[in-house]
Amino acid sequence: MIACVPENLATFAGELRARFAGPSSVTVDAPLASRTTLGVGGPADLLVEPVSEADLAVALRFCHQHGLPWRVLGRGSNVLVRDGGFRGMILLLDAAHFGRVERTGSQLRCGAAARLKAVAGSARKEGLAGLEFLEGIPGSVGGALRMNAGAHGSWMFEVTESVRFVEPSGALLEAAAGDLQARY
Q1: Model-wide pTM > 0.70
Q2: pLDDT in the model for residue 77
Q3: For residue 160, which of 149, 151, 171, 173 has the smallest C-alpha distance?
């Protein structure tokens, strides 16, 4: 495993930037406090903002190949970052691609960075029932799926049909919600 240390951070960042197909960004020694709702915490060695699923897969493959620890940061709610920061890569799914909410038939297709409030609002606007409980939950779809967020007796996986995701190896997959181990 290659440790992420100051001497090789700029090299890692340059190597990763060269692999991206789109204008995804890589920031070295990036402050994280302003990216959490609590406003505390130190920097990430690398902060990557992919603009597509393809670039997200590239970043995850890069971490896998180099043994770099990584975490996804969405809206930063319910997240504590230690003062010493995060040694590795933080993936910030903040691009428009990951925040979209689109109606397809009688369903909504939402990106991981879509705000839950926006999802509830879109459902209301489109006349789709069952997502009202999301209105008061801070955060995004990705985080809500990760923890099976719920309120008022309803849970995220009760209203989810399938989840499209990128594995740490970089493979893009889709699974039925019932095939995933959802728990709070």
Answers
A1: yes
A2: 78
A3: 149
Same domain, 86 and 104: no
Tell me the pLDDT tens digit for each residue of 118-159: 999 999 999 999 999 999 898 899 999 999 999 999 999 999
Last residue in a domain, options 59, 92, 125: 92
CA gap 94, 40 in Å, rounded: 19
Please give the C-alpha separations between residue 167 and each of 20, 23, 56, 142, in angstroms, as whole numbers: 17, 22, 10, 14
Give CA angle at 10 (9, 16), nearest 5°: 90
pLDDT band at 183 (very low <50, low <70, confident <90, very high): confident
Query: Quick one: 171 and 104 in the same domain?
Result: yes
76/20 Cα distance (integer angstroms): 25
The beta strand positions in 1-113, using DSSP E, are 25-31, 43-49, 70-73, 86-92, 101-104, 107-110
Same domain, 35 and 113: no
Please list the residues that pair with 161 across neighbouring strands.
none
Q: Note the pLDDT tens digit of each residue in 73-117.
A: 988 877 899 999 999 999 999 778 999 999 999 999 999 999 999
Cβ atoms of 142 and 74 closer than 8 Å = yes
Is residue 34 domain-resident?
Answer: yes
CB 108 within 8 Å of CB 94: no
